[in-house]
Amino acid sequence: MVERTADGSAGDADYGPIGQAYAGYRRPDPEIAVAIETALGDARAVLNVGAGTGSYEPPDRTVTAVEPSAAMRAHRPAELPKAVDATAENLPFADDSFDAAMSTFSVHQWQDLGAGLAELRRVTRGPVVILTCDPTRLDQFWLADYAPEVIDTEARRYPSLSRLADGLGGRTTSTIVPIPLACTDGFNEAYYGRPEGLLDARARLSCSAWSFVGPDVHERFAAELQRDLEAGVWDERHNGLRRQAHFDGSLVLVVAEP
User: Fold this and answer.
1) Which of 24, 60, 50 is nearest to 186 (CA)?
2) Among residues 122, 130, 115, 113, which one has the least CA distance to residue 48?
3) Which residues form the Methyltransferase type domain (predicted)?
4) How many domains are contained in the chain?
5) What's the rounded mean pLDDT across residues 208-235?
6) Rounded distance, CA 256 to CA 258, Å?
7) 112 assigned to some structural domain
8) Cβ atoms within 10 A of the Cβ of 166, count?
9) What pLDDT, on the 0 to 100 scale, is given for residue 143?
10) 2 inside domain
11) Under a CB-based contact definition with an 8 Å cutoff, are residues 51 and 57 in contact?
């Protein structure tokens, strides 16, 4: 049985407090949205598992959202359908109920990854589309120099691409998704060329990995980054990132066809 917090969160992070900042900082990015919608193909009935506040749910399709966190469900925009209170490991739907399924920044939260992937495949006739991060690519991001504890936390939590492929079966592809410079979805790497953004404590709150490190890490990170920005050290080390249109980091799209 999947254990859940008072908020209903079913993963390793409590989205009760995280959800308070999430909707304001984790807004769907248009370029990433295009990649997801393209991967969904011509599917009309789409399941979104770990749906959160509804990011990347395509507006021109019939979407059924599943989200265990009460805080995240409460912050879904009024124009989106209400989310079903359930977990990935126990989806309350019949076999082959949906044309396609999607999950964005969610699989690393599931208590039983294998069970969750098997459930996605069970209820989906067509492609399963997962937006996630490749843990082997996380240390390419400059945050590793300032808060290696956060990078290490993410690397432990995100499943390998091979685990996802094995769990979904069928024909699986993994493609790097370029992150745009003005990315509106505030995961850590979204700030690759705008480091000042991560000095905002609420921006860090909206990235669950920061909830696993103590106040000392937050304080050290902010002090060291602020110092290096003021002294021009960050710009010397990362020359050009402020003008680089895209960053090929750890963001990947995994697509499994049955």
Assistant:
1) 24
2) 130
3) 47-125
4) 1
5) 97
6) 6
7) yes
8) 13
9) 98
10) no
11) yes
Average pLDDT over residues 144-151: 98
pLDDT digits (tens, 9 = 90+) for 123-138: 999 999 999 999 999 9
In a domain, 7, yes or no: no
Mean predicted confidence (pLDDT) in 174-187: 97
**Angstrom distances, CA of residue 169 to CA of 23, 25, 112:** 33, 34, 17
| Structural domain of 91 | 15-257
CA distance 176 to 140: 14
Return d(Cα 113, Cα 141) in angstroms, integer. 26
Q: Tell me the residue type at 132.
A: T
Roughly what angle, to the nearest 10 degrees, separates helices 161-168 and 113-123? 40
Would you state the structure tokens that stand for residue 97, as one six-digit string? 């109920």
Q: Where are the alpha helices (DSSP H) in 101-214?
A: 113-123, 143-146, 148-157, 161-168, 201-205
> What's 157's domain CATH number?
3.40.50.150
**Does 6 fall in a domain?**
no
| Cβ 102 vs Cβ 36: under 8 Å | yes
**What tokens does 167 get?**
């769990």
3-state secondary structure of 257: strand
Distance CA 100, CA 97 (A): 9
| pTM of the predicted structure, to 2 decimals | 0.91
